[in-house]
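=== Structure Prediction Worksheet ===
Name of assembly: unnamed complex
Input type: mixed (protein and possibly other molecules)
Chain count: two
Listed entries:
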Amino acid sequence: MKELLLGMILVTLSSALVITFIRLVRGPNLPDRVVALDLLSVVVMAFICLYSIRYNQPIFLDVAIIMALLTFIGTVAFAYYLERRT
Amino acid sequence: MTEWLVLLIMLAGAFFILTAAIGILRMPDLFLRMSASSKAGTLGIGLILVGVAIFFNDFSITSRSFAVITFMLITAPVAAHMIGRAAYFDGTPLWKGTLFDALKTHYHLSTHELDSHEVIPADQLPDQLVGDFEADDFQQES
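=== Predicted Assembly ===
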């Protein structure tokens, strides 16, 4: 039963990943793609947390911390690029 | 018992992340998409990290996970604001159902500074910031 609940969480997160990826491919402009990439990293962080619970390895949380830091810096860099571009 | 609580909290978090993903796909406009993704995404990842903190029940893990929650709560609005501002100057088209664009006449176009009084008269706006809503893939789908 717990495995079933875990599988439901995995399915929900996987469909979120696929839906966000559709927007990443399709997005008409560059800002749409940047926003989709931002949400994609949130989904990946959720996956990392889920796996750290599933395999009982709290060390995986450090990966999520690094992921959050790098995503913020990447988004800020993209915003600077977009504003200076024109 | 604790594991059930953890799994239910994480299911709620995953549901909110799925809501953010659906919002980012279905909303018609960049700014509406950002309002869906930044709020629901932050709530979802916050719930999932609370679940991790309850599951391990260790001081170092709890403090680490709450540090990540605080970091997300601080950086998500900052990143969304920077992207929105840059996209507005980039000439991202607004949804054609948008009623009112208060920023349109108040930005200095050369210095990108915001002013409290009108700097451009409303009848001589440049074309870039008005923008027809061409790439409306919301309408192609429905």
